[in-house]
User: Which sequence fits this backbone?
């Protein structure tokens, strides 16, 4: 939810482009990709998802989005957003296929997801339209608009996650530290997932802060389960 909102915010601040009616290509359909897709859809965009994982690709398809390889999406997309955590998700070969004035932005990792270095090397002309909004003219005459030097657009051109999202993240970190301290010497040497009861406790605290109440199971229901 945080990445979805702040990514759109960054792109809007940088370009003020209309999302309605645009083909928005989102690389990656994990938690961040789902959030960006939901927000882009809510603004009237035609969302296209690219994936390498069959399960997540199926989720995207059943959520109502078009799913295709990046080489196909590159030809029809207006706005491209990478949220994968991997590198070179959008390569220079993809950017050469894009429409004139296609926008590329990254919100999933450091500056590795879009081949920004390759884009600078292959461009015959570079123009800074406004701070952190660059126009690269390729040899074929088409222009690519790159945002925030292809670093995190939601931080470069916006203000990152809303405070409510960060509060749940920091709550998780604090309770994780407490869990480790209380279980010192009892845990295996590996990455440990935060216990479900702590996730539920964080959600309860956030719901309390939002003034939201939910139902409780009665004893008969608990026994039945």
Assistant:
């Amino acid at each position: 939810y945080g990445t979805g909102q702040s990514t759109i915010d960054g792109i809007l601040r940088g370009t003020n482009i209309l999302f309605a009616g645009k083909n928005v290509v989102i690389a990656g359909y994990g938690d961040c990709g789902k959030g960006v897709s939901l927000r882009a859809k809510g603004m009237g965009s035609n969302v296209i998802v690219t994936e390498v994982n069959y399960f997540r690709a199926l989720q995207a398809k059943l959520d109502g989005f078009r799913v295709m390889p990046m080489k196909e999406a590159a030809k029809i997309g207006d706005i491209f957003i990478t949220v994968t955590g991997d590198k070179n998700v959008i390569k220079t070969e993809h950017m050469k296929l894009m429409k004139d004035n296609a926008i590329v932005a990254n919100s999933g990792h450091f500056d590795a997801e879009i081949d920004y270095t390759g884009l600078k090397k292959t461009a015959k002309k570079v123009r800074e339209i406004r701070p952190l909004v660059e126009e690269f003219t390729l040899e074929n005459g088409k222009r690519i608009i790159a945002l925030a030097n292809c670093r995190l657009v939601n931080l470069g051109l916006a203000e990152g996650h809303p405070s409510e999202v960060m509060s749940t993240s920091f709550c998780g970190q604090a309770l994780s530290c407490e869990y480790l301290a209380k279980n010192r010497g009892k845990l295996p040497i590996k990455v440990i997932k935060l216990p479900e009861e702590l996730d539920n406790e964080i959600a309860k605290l956030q719901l309390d802060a939002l003034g939201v109440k939910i139902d409780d199971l009665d004893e008969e229901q608990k026994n039945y389960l």
